[in-house]
Structure formats: C-alpha cells, structure tokens
Amino acid sequence: MSSAPTAERRAGGPARPDAPPRRRTVREFLQRHWFGYAMVLPVVLVLAVLVVLPLLQGVYFSLTDINDTTIANPVLDRPARYEWVGLANYLDVLSGDPAYGAFWATLGRTLIWTFACVFLHYALGLGLAVLLNRQVRGRGVYRVLLILPWAVPVFISAFAWKYLFNSEYGLINWLLELVGLPGQVWLGQSWLALASVIAVNVWLGVPFMMVALLGGLQNIPGELYEAAEIDGANAWQRFTGVTLPGLRSVSGTVVLLGVIWTFNMFPVIYLMTGNNPNTRILVTYAFERFFSGATRDYAIASTYGVLILSVLLVFATVHRRAMRRQGEEL
Amino acid sequence: MRSRATAAATAAALACLLAGCGSSAGGDPGTVVYWDTSGAGESAVFTEIAQECGRTGGYAVDVQTVAFDQALNNFKTAAQGGQGPDVLRADVGWVAQLAQAGLIQDLSGTPLADTADFLPEPVESTRYDGKPYAVPQVTDTLALLYNERALAEAGVEPPRTWADLQRIAPALGGDRAMFLNNDAFYALPFLYAEGGDLVDTATRTITVDSPESVRGLGIAKDLIDSGAARTALDQTNSYSIMKAAFTSGEVAMVLDGPWVIPELSQSELFADGQNLGIAPVPGPGGPIGGHDYVLRQGSDATANAIEFVECMSSTANQAAIAERLGLLPTRRSAYDEPAVAGHPVVSAFRPLVENTLPRAWIPEGNELLEPLKTAYAQVLAGHADAGTALDRTAGIYHETVLDGYARR
Questions:
Q1: Does residue B156 belong to any structural domain of this protein?
Q2: Identity of the residue in A75, A154, A273 whose CB atom sits nearest the CB atom of B236
C-alpha cells in the first residue's frame, strides 16, 4: 500500500519493533479513514450493481446463443436452455457477413457518421462561440435562440426534420425546386440518407459545443490578446496562437464526449430512417438484432455491444495519449 | 403493418421499456386487462364494446391502448416478467412466435377452441403445432382502391392484371395511374403475381429468390420504369405520401386495406366513401392480414378473460364492429346480419378475403417482412435488380431468420 508510510508518519513516532509494522499501519489507516470508505461504499455498490454486473453479464451473453426462446423464464417455470458457444458470435460478426450486419462496412459508416458530425459540431460551435464572445447587442437573445435545438426533445426534432425531408411534399425540396434545382430523395436508398441524418445531428449538437467552447473562451485572459496585438499579431494569428491553445483542455474533453455520444447516437437515425441499410451504424444494428428478430437475438446484440465498447475504449486511449503528448491531462 | 412506424410511439415505447412497462392490474382475477392495438379511428369502438362485455359479464375490463408497432415488443417484455395484459389483440403474424415462446395460452379444451363458425383462413393463423392459441378478431387483405370518377373520365375499367395496368396507364396520365407503397406487405401481391412466395413450409425451403418471385417483384419495377405507376423512394414517408396523393386526386389507384377507408373517407374527394371503388388486387390475389385475440400465459384472470374473448368475438359484436368500422368479421354468421350484408366496404371486401393467398404461419413469419422491405426499396430505387436483392434477402433469411430452412 503506497499510502502506508504517509499514514505511519501522520500517526507519529516510529513503529514498535515487537509488532509487525504492516498490520499495525493498516489498522491505523482504517481507524483514521474508515469514515471516508463507509461514505463511498454505497456508491461503489450501486455502480457495481448498475454498471459492472450488467456489463459482465453482457460479455457473458455474447459468448452464448441466448435468445428469446432459450432464456430462463421463472414465471413460466422454464429453465434456461442457452449454451456456451465460445467465440462463435464474434467470428460471425467479424467475418463481415451481411447476415450479421456487414460489420466492417457498418463500422466504416459509423466512423464517417461520428467524425463528420463531431467535426462539424466543433467547427460550427467554435465559430458561433467566437461570434458570441464579444459585445454584441442582443447577445442574450442570440444565445437563447442558438440553444433552442438542444432544448427541443430529440424525437420531436427528428419528426419535424422527417417532414422537411419528405421527397414529395417536403419544404426542402420545395425550396430547391423554387430556385430551379431538382428535388432529391433525401431519406431513400442512397448516401443522401446518411448526409441527411448527419445534417440533422449537426443541427442538434452544435448548441452544446457552442456553450462549452464559449465557457472556455471566457476563461482566456484578455491580457494575452492585448500582448499578442502589441506584438503585431493579426486576427488570424491571435486565433491560432491564443484562442486555440487556450481552448485546448475544453476542446479535448468536449471532443471526447462528442465522439462517444455520436458513436452511440440512436434516436436521430432510427426515428428518421428506420432500418435503412444506408444509415445503419453499429448501435442501430444492435437494436435491430435485439428487437426485430422472431426470437430476440440477445447474443448477437450483446456481441455488438461489446465490440462498440471496445472501439470506444481504443479511441479513448488514443485520444488520451494524444492529449497527454500535448501536455494536457484529462 | 397497419399503423406506420410513428416516431412518437417509438420514443414513448422506448421510455416505456426502460421504465419496465406493462404494469397490469396486479393479478386481480376480477379485472381483465385488454391491450387494444387498433388505430386511432377504431379504438373508441373497440373500447366501448369491451366495456359493455364487462358490464354484462360481471367483471371489470381495463382497456389500454398500445401503439401497434410497439405492442409485440412490449408484450414480450412484459410477459417474460409475468406482467402485461390478460388479453392482447395480436396481429395474425405474431401468434405463432408468441406460442413458440410460451407466452400465450393453449386454448384446447376451452370454449374458445370451437371454431366451426369461423372462416378457415383466419383460423389457420391461430394454430401452432396443431393446437389453437388464438381467436380471430378481424380479417383483411389488400385491395385495389380506385378513384371511380377518374377511371370513368378516362373510360377505363379497373385493371385485372398488371399488364392491364400498363395498357390503361396512358389514359390516366401515365404514372398518375397508380401509387405503389414502398413497404414489404405491399410488395407481397407482386411477389405472388407469378406464383412466387417467401417460403415453402411444406419442404422447408426459402423461395423468396425463386425465379417466380424475382419475376413478380420485377413487375413492380417495370411499372415504375415504364411510367405506369409511381412510388416514393423515401420509404419512411412512403405511406403518408401515398395517402396524400390518392386523396388529392393526384393518383387514381392505390393498393391498401379496409383499415385505411375511414381515413380516406375524411377527405373531400372520398367524403363518406363516395367515389371510392374497391376491386381485387391485379393478379392472383393479395396477402391475408388481420388480428386475433390471445390470452397471456400466467394471467390470473384467465376465467374472465375467456368469457371476455367469447363476448368480443360473438356474432353480434363482430357485426357491430363491421357495421361501425367497416372491418371484416371472421365469423360466417356475422356476414348474414343485415347491417353487415348491406355495408358497402364489407361487401366489397368479402369476396377478396375469400380469395387471399395463404401466408406461412410460422414463428418467423412476421420477421420475414423486414428484410423484404429493404430489398423492395432497393429494387424500386434501381440500386439492385430484383434477382440480386432477393438473393440477398434469401441469404438473410437463411442465416438469421429461418433456422433449418434450406436455400433453393
């Protein structure tokens, strides 16, 4: 225990030679700190029950052939009949077979979706934050208006956008045709469907980035800008030399959060396009497998869950390394 | 199939699932909890009849309206945990899978097993493993609905075959002749057109990619390409676009079922059912649909639930439902009631439901439609020809849906 010497020193005096020092320090340590541990214990237990246990169960399910008909049902007096299948589910999924959701193609689409969304969130959010970070008349009104997309429940926004994208009677096609451009089938069987859901998700996600970055901007001391100006830096140089480095810690956090949220963003895609293979990402496919099979396929859905978690863990590790290399600790 | 996926319902149901929905009356044997999945225009009538059944039978009835698209999932989740309604209005395609999962009761030996008066095809949907698991509520199929005035002005009769449609389309303004709904259930008449089908249960073979099925689905694409019909390539909006196009007079014909007629009748063009023609689907026939009553396994109110279903499916109540909603009874005797015999929608659909093509009543039956939906959309959009798309569908059936079925 690394903190033992500290506790010993705090307890005052050297260890008695006749007692085993380690045991005594542990007891003393607990005597001093039992209250803190007691306070933390409920949280640890709740987290274990709500997070760790289901996670382990999910991992276990992904190694079985569990589904609707093999799961135990105490009400019907039916014992569990699912069996251990080892890595068979992973092999099926990772083979990229279309019958198991064409994993690699779906992963590619998920990455396009995630990075397109987060890039646009960040770029637009930063632009708006910089605009709002100065004294403009009616700044409060602008801020409220810009936060609006965030305040509306997602399913209402998705519904409204679905109407806007309607290929026959939608406002967007009507406007396009008004200026002489051909109307498009936005939510059909083409890449346009993915572009459409990305557009909607960007619209939904920009306010969060804007608010977070605005907070970051307000923490950059004004003297830095003054000093840069005196040194003859132009607006662009002040932006790249002062603003961006000043925002680095905020950016690192919001980008990481944005990636995780967007990677698992379910409602926008599901509510706007349903089971369209052109907008299928990993998490919507896991949902499809879980809910739309004759026998709900818990095993494949769990396999997807574990794979999604793995991808995100890899990303988070790489991200953290990159941030640390730049001297920021997350 | 009936009510299209509604975003609000989905979101509500998701929240519902998370919160552990399906709180029933807590096992009170004197209360029958009934999950009604009928549409907005229908549920008031079903609720009224259900309450009346409770009053005369001497038990309480708690009618809970559940969105059709989410009802199957909610029921499964609830029933697994020993909760949920005592009686569910289930789509005909759900019965076999609920029976297989052991979530609904075998009705052998109860008064509900007496099906002598019922039409044979709906009764088929209630059987699993040779035993009765449900009681048919209503039956339906797709029909060719047409704008009588538009066809009369063009001087044409409703088409009897798809070739007929090609022939008369120019007189109706080319692709304004018909709208094809971009959805799986609505693709079935095409799949059947040349003798194809999804599966052959007798030989346990997947037939969705057979030459007959491929040719049949190809007809739909030909109709679009030759300008004899149109569709909406954005699948999520397709059904609402179809209804809008039909009620505004933009297209002259659609394929749809009796459930849509109350809604169509609210439009100016088809006010009170005037001007709305009903004819058989071109080709050999349409798919059978409908709803059944099922009893949840583990329900504490089974005795009253049996009485409740008996009452709901009595000749008198079936006739009342038919008279007020234009839905088709499943009892032969109900068709003899004067109010039913004289009902224009019921009498127009009656010969059609007798001529439906049987569907495969297997647990996986309902799940065959989702992959077909994707394939149909890709065919209509021109991203894959019917052969390629259906070959892919057969692959999905083989790998993930149908256990123990062979490819051709």
A1: yes
A2: A273
Cα dist from B127 to A42, B34, B120, B362, B391, whole Å: 52, 21, 11, 10, 30
Task: Tally Cβ neighbours within 10 Å of residue B22.
Answer: 24
- Tens-place pLDDT, residues A165-187: 988 888 999 999 999 888 888 88
B34, β-bridge pairs: B63, B87
Tell me which DSSP letter residue B26 carries.
Answer: S
CATH number at residue B178: 3.40.190.10
Q: Are B282 and B298 found together in one domain?
A: no
Containing domain of residue B377, as a range?
Answer: 143-286+364-407
Last residue of one domain, picked from the residues B313, B328, B354: B354
B364 part of contact set with chain A, CB < 8 Å: yes
Q: Verify whether the Cβ–Cβ distance B236 to A274 is below 8 Å.
A: yes
Query: C-alpha A153: how far from its chain's center?
Result: 18
Q: Quick: pLDDT tens for B11-55.
A: 444 444 444 444 444 568 889 999 999 887 788 999 999 999 999
For the whole model, what pTM was predicted? 0.80
The answer to whether position B82 is within a domain reads yes
Instruction: Please tell me the distance in Å from B202's CA to the nearest CA on chain A.
Output: 20
Residues of A in contact with B82 (CB under 8 A): 74-75
* Contact flag A185-B8 (C-beta cutoff 8 Å): no
- N-term to C-term CA, chain B: 28
Q: Which residue in A has a C-alpha nearest to residue B402's C-alpha?
A: A294
Chain B, nearest residue to A92 by Cα: B399
Final residue of a domain: which of B334, B354, B374? B354
Residue in chain B lying closest to A272 (CA): B236
Which of B234, B378, B399 is the mutation pick for testing A, counting most A CBs within 10 A?
B234
**Region A102-292: CATH code:** 1.10.3720.10
Helices A103-132 and A282-291: crossing angle in degrees, nearest 10, is: 130
B359 within a domain of the structure (yes/no): no
- List the structure tokens of B180: 């094809």
Q: Where are the domains of chain A?
A: 102-292
Ranges in chain A, pLDDT < 50: 1-15, 330
Q: Do B381 and A166 touch (CB under 8 A)?
A: no
- How does strand B253-256 pair with strand B127-128? unpaired
Q: Which residue has the tokens 């397709």?
A: B238
Task: Judge contact between B88 and B294, C-beta under 8 A.
Answer: yes
A217: its two tokens: 């901007």
Q: Which helix (H) or strand (E) holds B276?
A: strand B276-279
Residues B346 and B392 in one domain: no
Q: Do B383 and A100 touch (CB under 8 A)?
A: no
In this complex, the residue of B10, B81, B241 whose CB is nearest that of residue A168 is B241
Residue B1: per-residue pLDDT: 39
Across the range B115-129, mean pLDDT stands at 91
Residues B337, B323: Cα–Cα separation, whole Å:
10
Structurally, chain B folds into a number of domains equal to 2
Q: B217 and B376 in contact (C-beta within 8 Å)? A: yes
In a domain, B2, yes or no: no
ipTM of the complex: 0.73
Which chain A residues are closer than 8 Å to B97 by Cβ?
A: 294-295
